[in-house]
Amino acid sequence: MLDNLVDFLGSNNRFTGLLPASIVNLGQLGRLDLHDNGLSGELPSGIHSLKKLNELNLADNDFSGNIPEEIGSLSMLNYLDLSGNRFSGKIPLELQNLKLNQLNFSSNRLSGDIPPLYAKEIYKSSFLGNPGLCGDIAGLCDGREEAKNLCYVWLLRLIFLLAGLVFIVGVVWFYWKYRNFEKEKRAIDKSKWTLMSFHKLGFSEHEVLDCLDEDNVIGSGSSGKVYKVVLSNGEAVAVKKLGRSSKIADESSDLEMGQIQDDRFEAEVETLGKIRHKNIVKLWCCCSTKDCKLLVYEYLPNGSLGDLLHSNKSGLLDWPTRYMIAVDAAEGLSYLHHDCVPPIVHRDVKSNNILLDGDFGARVADFGVAKVVDTKGKRPKSMSIIAGSCGYIAPEYAYTLRVNEKSDIYSFGVVILELVTGRLPIDPEFGEKDLVKWVCTTLDQKGIDHVLDPKLGSCFKEEICKVLNIGLLCTSPLPINRPSMRRVVKILQEVGAVKLQKMVKKDGKLSPYYYEDASDHGSVA
Question: Which residues span the membrane (predicted)?
Answer without folding.
Answer: 154-176
